[in-house]
Design brief:
The chain is of the alpha+beta class and 154 residues long. The chain contains 3 helices and 11 strands, in the order ααβββββββββββα. It has a single domain (2-153), classed as Jelly Rolls (Sandwich), CATH 2.60.120. The longest helix is centred in the N-terminal third of the chain and has 14 residues, at 2-15.
């Protein structure tokens, strides 16, 4: 039985992931996948999963989001800013008025307070990041309009 599992594992690597396995590969079992994020906040398939819930002691919210290739958040702001830690894949981040940046595994991005921004996966590869929102007593997020295909592709 153990030998069969090893053999199957090798076959999966040689053949490549089947449809739907991109999510499991990117998530790599570190965190549960989470449910698909609502289309009112995301374009494409994004899967947020909460890690640290809001409370009055730590006043911090944290979680993981996996974005399938091409998926992205809407424009949004955070009253106290946001920190992103990319844990897998390749994605994009953009602060309004600045050029879109490519972000990769190991990158840390600071989104300033009350500044419009968006983030998501690259066109050809998914991306997973941890988000940290400090000082939640000031508020958490204000969601805005979707990032257009023109903005995403520019």
């Amino acid at each position: 039985m153990k030998r069969l599992l090893v053999t199957l594992g090798i076959l999966i690597v040689v053949i490549g992931p089947c449809k739907g396995q991109e999510k499991a590969k990117m998530n790599d079992g570190i965190f549960p996948m989470g449910e698909k994020g609502p289309s009112q906040f995301f374009t494409g398939n994004a899967y947020p999963y909460g890690l640290v819930q809001v409370d009055s002691v730590y006043t911090t919210l944290a979680g993981n989001v996996y974005f399938e290739s091409g998926a992205r958040s809407n424009w949004h702001t955070h009253p106290s800013g946001q920190i992103l830690i990319v844990i897998d894949g390749v994605g994009y981040h953009q602060i309004e008025g600045q050029a879109k940046e490519t972000i990769r595994k190991g990158d840390v991005v600071k989104c300033p307070p009350n500044i419009r921004h968006w983030h998501g996966a690259s066109k050809n590869e998914g991306m997973s990041h941890i988000y940290i929102i400090p000082n939640t007593e000031k508020g958490i997020v204000e969601w805005m309009e979707p990032v257009s295909d023109e903005q995403y592709n520019h």
